[in-house]
Task: structure prediction
Amino acid sequence: MVSFEWYRSFIEVYRVGTVSGAAQVLHLTQPAVSQHITALESALGGLLFQRMPRRMLPTEAGKRLYNRIASAIEALESVSMNAGLENASLLIRLGTPQEFFVEQILSRIKTQNTLFSIRFGLAQELIEQLLNNQLDGVIATQKIAKSELEYQLIFEENFWLVGPPEREIPIVQADLSSLSTWLTQQPWIAYSDELPIIRRFWRVVFGWRLDVNPQFVIPDLRSIRAAIAHGLGYSVLPDYLCREWIADGRLNLVLQPTKAVANQIWLTYRKSERQSQQITALLDLLLSSTF
Result:
């Protein structure tokens, strides 16, 4: 007879990708998890994983088994975890870009009977934590192709070129050729040395690759916004960070292009947990009204 614990070990090895990682999640020893996987393979009559030097890769049989049992195992675990705990607080572990969380999500959070554990970081590192079951969901600015993940679109940001509030631009801004030439001679403030946001904007709007060295590299979009307001240079920022500051006269809108330079933002979660309380609560939070 197949043990339920064998299935639990299989599910965690599948999700985490290593026996040692699954053992930590399950609070078991590594040999115990290995024995569970071996026993399950023996009972089912086939290999569920390819043993690689640093990772357990699921075979086709392993993928089929996971798709058949993941939701059932999750439901059973949910029953056992919630039995007698109707009033227990729900814990949501969310990874997110810091600027987007502070500006767009924080005011939406309701504290009633829900606990939040927030981690800030870049999409790639947060996705890895999600795959390792260290997070329940991730606010991602890009889609990273992983078969275990599902993406729900929650927001679209447009990028605007902004500058110091009281600095005049000595040319007609509608003349894109003259504007681009003039801007290359100005100080720039970038998120990183590679200028990913600025160069993408430049390529779409002006049609050529910008090649400048930024005056300042500041890995925080809100700090870049403040630096521009203090007259330190120009940059490209998402509209949700700029709109109020432009209206208040703290920033100067240099260019809002006719052809929008947009980026989509997603809620990312493991497919196996799309029906979990955490993901349901996050989707309610993020999709209940427009940003």
User: Anything to note?
Assistant: The chain has a mean pLDDT of 90. The chain has three domains: 4-82, 90-156+264-287, 157-261. The first strand starts at residue 49 and ends at 51.
